[in-house]
Specification:
The chain is mainly alpha-helical and 210 residues long. It has a single domain, classed as Methane Monooxygenase Hydroxylase, Chain G, domain 1. It is 80% helix and 0% strand. The protein has 6 helices and no strands. α1 runs parallel beside α3, α3 packs antiparallel against α6 and α4 packs parallel to α6. The relative contact order is 0.16. The N terminus is likely disordered.
């Protein structure tokens, strides 16, 4: 006998979540490119700002839709948390690019490249998961992917701690350099933290509707 789903057939929220996740992938790819091909930094930072603005537009549409929709496919609180968590990931990706430009970072470190790659992996994983949220039979798979996202956040923590240890071991005489790099590393680590927040919201939704 077919299992009856209590989730309404309004798919517009899912479409918007998928757009937001796809936008994250583009931004993460550009972050990796920024640190792997460190040239035209101002232009690349502007591209990240444009993507961040596009993410804001999608987030605002999601929140506006929550207020004008009588029956939402999942709890309103979950929709809002998911939208804001995805938007936070984008904000920190953009902040990393902006910091590299505004602080006149001369050359990226290998640790910065490592963190950018982890951010990219997490964005791609979120982009894989988001289209499956509307499919009840994919809930178990989503939970498995959430575990992988948590592992990526742990990996980012390890790289972040190693980066800070190396930064202070080198102990540059210019304290401004320390401040610049601490902030840049922190933005990328924060991006992975917010990615883990997305995974936590997804896990809660899945367990609630399983």
């Amino acid at each position: 006998m077919a299992k009856f789903s209590l989730i309404p057939r309004d798919m517009e929220f899912y479409d918007l979540f998928e757009q937001e996740a796809a936008n994250l992938v583009v931004a993460a790819e550009k972050l990796v490119d920024l640190f792997n091909n460190y040239e035209n930094v101002a232009a690349k930072a502007r591209e990240l700002k444009d993507l961040e603005h596009r993410g804001d537009v999608i987030t605002h549409e999601i929140i506006a839709r929550v207020h004008r929709t009588f029956v939402t496919p999942i709890d309103r609180e979950d929709i809002t948390l998911l939208a804001h968590s995805l938007d936070d990931v984008m904000d920190f990706i953009e902040a990393a690019g902006r910091t590299a430009y505004l602080y006149h970072i001369a050359q990226p470190t290998e640790r910065a490249r490592e963190l950018a790659r982890i951010v990219d992996k997490m964005a791609r994983k979120l982009n894989e998961v988001m289209p499956q949220l509307r499919h009840h039979d994919k809930f178990k798979w989503i939970l498995e992917q959430c575990v992988e996202i948590n592992s990526l956040e742990n990996e980012a923590d390890d790289v972040h701690h190693a980066a800070l240890a190396e930064l202070f071991e080198a102990c540059p005489s210019d304290a401004c350099e320390v401040i610049k790099w601490r902030e840049l590393y922190q933005h990328m680590e924060d991006a992975t933290d917010r990615g883990e927040d997305v995974a936590n919201v997804l896990e809660g939704v899945v367990l609630k509707y399983a």
